Each structure stands twice: as structure tokens, then as C-alpha cells.
Amino acid sequence: MNERERILDLVKQGVITSEEALVLLENLAKKQSAPQGKQSQPDATTGQTQAAPDEDSALTKLNTKIAEVSGSLDATSNQIKKTQAKVAANKEQIIVLDTMEDLDTLTAAKYEERGTLKRENAQLGEKLVQLADQQEQLRQTLADLHRQKRQLTKQSLAGILPDDWQDQTKDALNDLGKTVSVTTNQIGSMVKKTVSSVLDNVDWKDVNIKVPGLATEKFSHTFSYPDSQASIIDVKVANGDVTLVEGDGRDVVIQADIKLYGKMAGESPLQSFLDRSRVEVTDDHLIFQVPNKRIQADLIITVPKRDYDHVSLRLLNGNLKVNALSGKDFFAKSTNGDLTFSGLTAVMLETEGVNGSVKVNGQVHDLVVDAVNGDIKFKGDAKTLELKTVNGTIRTTLVSDFKALTASSVNGDVKLAMPASVAVTGEARTRFGSIKSRMSGVEADAKTKALSLDRPGTGAGTLKASVSSGTIQLKDTDLSK
């Protein structure tokens, strides 16, 4: 076997590639043509040797151009990735600022910052479109160059490889395929037996499989502020439940169960949380704000027993519970969650809710409740009440005289109870429902759509109740319960 046949045999066996074979054959042809350079009669080998430098030069130029285009494509792809990362970072910051707006904490500077980020993202979006077009053009150019290289390589091999090289290679591959098929069947049979043995001998009840998901960090931390004199409480949380209770001591203690969603840069999970939150306790204020939607913070806040000047509690997604607190001005808001006040003593309580019920039990001089999808329930002593909901039922139980009560529901009932000794004047009106009365001194038949009230008693309470498709029910409060 001469050197040429040996090179071809290595190609068939897959030891070397066709391009490597071409280089070896060209070198071999150059060696063989050297002593024949003085002869005047050229042969086929001499012609191929003369054509080889031109083909080699063209192949070198193609490889150089392919390298240049590949470099430009990589640079464009990296630029696209950096631009996309910048857009994603801007979007995350915009979401945080939007959440701050939902929690009514967006300052003028933050508002301007949000506008700047949106304008920057618009410019980056246009840049991404241009980069994507450039990337597509470079890919097409690179594909054309590779196609030219394959054609040039094919032409070079056409004069070197024997005419039946494809048939010889096909026969070799067929033999290899048969060998691989037999080996695959043997391996498959072995794997099947092994898996069957595992299934028969493993107690799967004791096996726990973790499915990859969003990276999360969970931890708990207690914030403690001894001998706090703060009389203003400001809590804003994007995701999480908040419980505000009155304690026996003089310290402010905040027990926080925190989850961080996604990877966050920080020395520790706590530091990542603090970098994205505002926790501050001074002589006047207790501030705990978590506006980032990638953080869930379930809080139990224990505060000293005192009359608080102002309490503001704003939640985006979470339930709020306030137990046995006393103060002047209370405001609570939750977009998705229930609001519950137990044992409350307040001069003013105002609540806003979108999806969730509102329950208040205690003594409130002025009560304002505005809900969209949720029930409203109040039991206690109040002088002025303004209760409104779109989809929900209003239940009010007064235990003493009042000044004014307004209750309205679009798609729901209104159920009102007040002591029999309390004076009531005003009206109750429904469009498609009915009015029912078990209140002493007030009678209504089944077909009544509008009812005027004028019952004597203590105080001077004015009532205005209205529904669209529900029922209005009036009754006396059972003070024995």
C-alpha cells in the first residue's frame, strides 16, 4: 500500500478528515512533482500540483474572511446580551417604582427617575432592533462563506479521491452501523434489566425528587428596638402578610419571615433584603417599607401600649391584622388581601381594598370603608360611618347611638342593626331587590323598593342605605350577646 492509498484508507476509517487528507495529498503531490520539474512533457499529476497553490490561496482567503465575520458576529451577540441585561435591570427598577406608586410612596425624584428609565428603555429597544438586523446579516454572510468553502473543498477532493470513494466509505459505514446496532441492543437489554431491578427493589415512598425551579432564599430575622417612643407607624409591603399587635413591654419587636425570589447580589440574604428595603426607627417614627415585588415579607410587629398619632398600613398582596391597638388616625390599604381590625380604639379609620373583605370590631368615631370586591363587616361603637362596596355584602351592628350611617352596595346585600332605643331618620332604597324590616317602629312589606325612616329615640341618627340588585335588612341589635 503506497502513501496515497494509506491516506485514503485513513479517511475511510474516520481517523482524519477530508480537509486533512487534502493537505497531506497536496504535500505528497509536491514531493512527487519535484524531480519531474525538468521534464518537458506534463502529466495529470503535474497539472494538479500547479492548480493546488491557487486553490490553497483561495481557501486561505475564505478562512480569513470567515474568521473576521465570526468575530463581528460574536461582538454583535455580546452587545445584544449587554443591552438586554440593561433593559431587564431598568424594567426591574421600573417595577419597584410602580410598586412604590401603588403604595403611595413615589416621590417627585423617583417619578422623574422612572420617566428617565422608560425613555432609556425605548432607546435601547430601537438599538436592539438594529443589532438584531445586523446579527441576521452577519449570519447570512457567514453561511454563504461556509457554503463557498464546502464547494471549494469538494472541488479539490474531486481530483484526488478515487471515483468509488463514496461507495467504499458507504460500505465501511454500513459495517460500522451493524456493529453499533448490535452493541446498542446489548446495552439496551442490560439497562432494561437494571431499571426493572431498581423498580422492584426501591421503596419509592422514601424517595424525594427535587424539581428545579426559581431560586429562592428563606430566612427569619428579628428586628428589636428597645424603649421605643415612636408614635407614628408607617408600614408598606408589596408581598406578605402583616400583623400589628400591642405588647406588654416598651420595645418594638418585628419578627420577619422573608423569602427572596431570584438571585440577588449581596453578602448575605439579610443584606440583600436590607438593600431593597427601608427599616428605620426613630424617636417619632417606625418605618418598615419593602416595595420590591421579588421579596415576600411576613411580619409580626409588636409595639408598646400607647395612643398612636398616625398609623399607615399599605399592602399590595397580603392580609392585614391589627389587634388591640389605640390611636387617633388609622389608614389601611390592600389591593389583594383581607383587612381585619379587632379591639380597635380610634378617632378615625379609613380603609381601601380591591380584592378582599374588611372587618372592624371596636370603638371608632369616624369610619370610612371603600371596597370593590369584598364584604364589609363592622361591630361596635361608631358615630359616623361611610361604607361602600361594589361586589359584596355590608353587615353593620351598632351598640350605641350614631350620627350618620351611609351604606351602599351595587351587587350585594346591606344588613343593618342598631339598638331599639336609638333614633333613626333617613331612607332605604333598592332598585331590583327588596327591603325587609325587623326593626321596632319600622315596617316594610315584601314589595317595598323605597322606605322612609323616622323613628324617635336617643340621639339623632341619619341613615341612608342603597343597593341595586340586593336586599336591605333592618333589625334591632341584641345587646345581650
UniProtKB/TrEMBL annotation:
UniProt keyword terms in alphabetical order: Coiled coil
Domain (DUF4097): residue spans on this chain: 233-474
Presence of keyword Transcription regulation: no
Cell membrane is among the record's keywords: no
The organism's taxonomic lineage, starting at the top: Bacteria, Bacillati, Bacillota, Bacilli, Lactobacillales
Residue ranges of the TM segments: none
Region (Disordered): 32-56
Protein name, UniProt field: Uncharacterized protein
Residues forming coiled coils: 73-155
Domain YvlB/LiaX N-terminal, first and last residues per copy: 2-32
Residue stretches of biased makeup (Polar residues): 33-51
